[in-house]
Amino acid sequence: xxxxxxxxxxxxxxxxxxxxxRMGGGDKSLRPIGGRTVLERIVERVTPQVARLMLNAxxxxxxxxxxxxxxxxxxxxxxxGPLAGVLAALDWTSAIEPGISWVLTLxxxxxxxxxxxxxxxxxxxxxxxxxxxxxxxRNRSHPVIALWPVAIRDELRDAIVAQSIRKxxxxxxxxxxxxxxxxxxxxxxxxxxxxxxxxxxxxxxVASHPDL
Length: 212
What we know:
Elements: H1 3-6, E1 10-15, E2 32-33, E3 36-37, H2 38-46, E4 52-56, E5 71-72, H3 82-96, E6 102-107, H4 117-128, E7 132-137, E8 140-149, H5 153-161, H6 168-172, E9 177-182, H7 196-208
Parallel strand pairs: 1-4, 1-6, 4-5, 7-9
Antiparallel strand pairs: 2-3, 6-8, 7-8
Helix pairs in contact: 3-5
């Protein structure tokens, strides 16, 4: 079956609003791995899986101009964390793509995102009749890599603004959710880059597995 036959249209939202303190600042998503930036690798993998792709990032959006993606900043001040990026993606989808009811969020520092991410998350959500679905590997969940219904955005805004919720799992534990496990061979598809050492390891992985 094709994606369109079984899956609802989904907006992909790459969350690249982090401060990258452990990398010494700058944009982790623009660091090169094997001759291509992390962001280029993510976009190549995710674009076939979604109806539309956008980027959540703060400060000057022109640094991402080469990607040709809509760049949407957090609507909440003071960098309240990844939930603000999720909210920005849900609000953007509601305003720009009102016919789409689902958003996939993923971090801007995970270059090996699986090519079946959206289909498996939707399938699990539909099977278990849950509100949310998130990815996992090595028996560890990755709450940023998740499917969100656009309809949840007002509840999310209230949680961040009125209740000072900052951690994704502190919000998502309120809802029925399913976690989908991915294999970690040949590499963990949710390997993420936080430090210069991680960047070096990613380079080695690409050299060892050219199909990445």
